[in-house]
UniProtKB/TrEMBL annotation:
Superkingdom of source: Bacteria
CDD domains: flavodiiron_proteins_MBL-fold
Domain Flavodoxin-like, residue spans: 261-400
Signal peptide span: none
Family matches, as InterPro entries: Flavodoxin/NO_synth (IPR008254), Flavoprotein-like_sf (IPR029039), Metallo-B-lactamas (IPR001279), ODP_dom (IPR045761), RibonucZ/Hydroxyglut_hydro (IPR036866), Rubredoxin-O_OxRdtase (IPR016440)
Pfam families, A to Z: Flavodoxin_1 (PF00258), ODP (PF19583)
Protein name: FprA family A-type flavoprotein
GO molecular function: electron transfer activity; FMN binding; metal ion binding; oxidoreductase activity
Family to which this protein belongs: In the N-terminal section; belongs to the zinc metallo-hydrolase group 3 family.
């Protein structure tokens, strides 16, 4: 991989092809990268670290770039352990390194790694000179932890953005979007942004989705900077697609979506599943884009992705214990936790002796200010097309 981003910026991150579930929750079908960067001048700064499992590879990446030169500063933009868990190792190898971070990160560094000394605390707009290179620091709280900040390399108009503008997916080829490719993606897309877009949506919706308001605040703050390059902690370095990724994060954090339907269902004996598939078939007949997710067999990660992608959400759930069948409740709960709004909503599901799931799903949707397409379809016992007129529902969706 070409790790030279510029004469002064080198990529020293790693690709993780081994982890199956990220954060114990989210699948990684294409892996993930933990990005870290060196800024090399009279002084050297390391921007974030990487995941602890990769210490040998990570240290080797650093040495290949700077040999035995010492690193003067470790900039900690974000304390989540996928980026900070080699902090202790770096301190052992570079004992004089000075940690540069903000006040909110200091107790976290102590709490996670027992490190309390040689820390330089920066505030909004503070700068650090490396010689002929200047790093400026801007706070970006809750993008996605409270201590998050970003670092701007003034002379190269480069933003080290932490998780912001990141994606799932390991990176093949070079790290820059001029030649980066999503690892394992067989059918290459027309460009790097198009190829990573679904994994960016999944990353955003799964991990950052709750924080739309704070992402908006950060975007507003950063709009005052001229940004030519974005070095995120996950995924490609954006050079050709800076405007695309900034516009897309803006859209996602406003909860704006394209026309289409995310159908997510959970079914015990197949009746709610048949209703879901009937809705999908009727939407297809009308040329409406949709995705269909079985919440009993599929990780909910993909349904969250499409709930952020499409402007309509349809949830199917039988009634269970006079409540919503748990896999569907889990999905709906996650949508509410992520404050998903600006969506049209439709609920459906079977019951045997008393229906509750559709009513309860509708109540949750209304609390999120979602617009109900109809009162939903709650049907007794077995599925029949007569009980579930999905043609009428699809018609309503396609006309609205
Ligand atoms: Fe990739 Fe919030 O850590």
């Amino acid at each position: 991989m070409n790790r030279k981003i510029s004469e002064k910026i080198r990529y020293v991150g790693v690709n993780d092809h081994h982890k199956v579930i990220f954060e114990g929750l989210w699948p990684l079908p294409f892996g993930v990268s933990y990005n870290s960067y060196l800024v090399i001048d009279d002084k050297i700064a390391l921007i974030d670290t990487a995941e602890a499992d990769f210490s040998n590879e990570y240290l080797s990446n650093i040495r290949k770039q700077i040999g035995n030169r010492p690193i003067d500063y470790l900039v900690v933009n974000h304390m989540e352990p996928d980026h900070s868990s080699l902090l202790g190792v770096i301190r052992e190898i570079y004992p004089d390194i000075r940690i540069v971070t903000n006040a909110k990160a200091v107790p976290m560094i102590g709490g996670y790694y027992g490190v309390t000394d040689n820390i330089h605390v920066v505030k909004e707009g503070d700068t650090l000179s490396l010689g002929n290179s200047t790093l400026a620091f801007y706070m970006a709280p809750m993008v996605h932890w409270p201590e998050t900040m970003v670092t701007y390399f003034v002379e190269e108009k480069t933003l080290f953005s932490g998780d912001a503008f990141g994606t799932f997916g390991a990176v093949d080829g070079g790290i820059a979007d001029t030649d980066a490719r999503l690892c394992g993606w067989l059918d290459k897309s027309e460009n790097c942004f198009a190829e990573f877009k679904d994994e960016m949506t999944r990353y955003y919706s799964n991990i950052v989705g709750k924080y739309g308001q704070t992402v908006q605040a950060a975007l507003k703050k950063l709009s005052g900077l001229e940004i030519k390059r974005i070095c995120s902690t996950h995924g490609p370095v954006w050079e050709n697609h800076v405007a695309d990724v900034v516009a897309y994060y803006d859209k996602l954090s406003r909860y704006e979506a394209e026309r289409g339907v995310c159908i997510a269902y959970a079914s015990m004996y197949g009746n709610t599943a048949q209703a879901a598939k009937s809705l999908a078939a009727e939407l297809a007949k009308r040329g409406v884009k949709y995705s269909l997710h079985n919440l009993c067999t599929e990780n909910v990660s993909y349904a969250y992705r499409d709930a952020f992608k499409y402007d309509t959400i349809a949830i199917g759930a039988p009634t269970y214990n006079n409540d919503i069948f748990p896999p569907a409740y889990n999905f709906m709960y996650g949508l509410c936790a992520r404050l998903v709004k600006n969506r049209r909503f439709f609920a459906f599901g079977s019951f045997t002796w008393a229906g509750a799931s559709v009513r309860l799903l509708n109540e949750m949707a209304k609390k999120q200010d979602m617009e109900l397409i109809s009162e939903g379809i709650s049907f007794p016992q077995g599925y029949t097309p007569e009980k579930c007129n999905m043609a009428a529902v699809a018609e309503l969706i396609s006309k609205q």
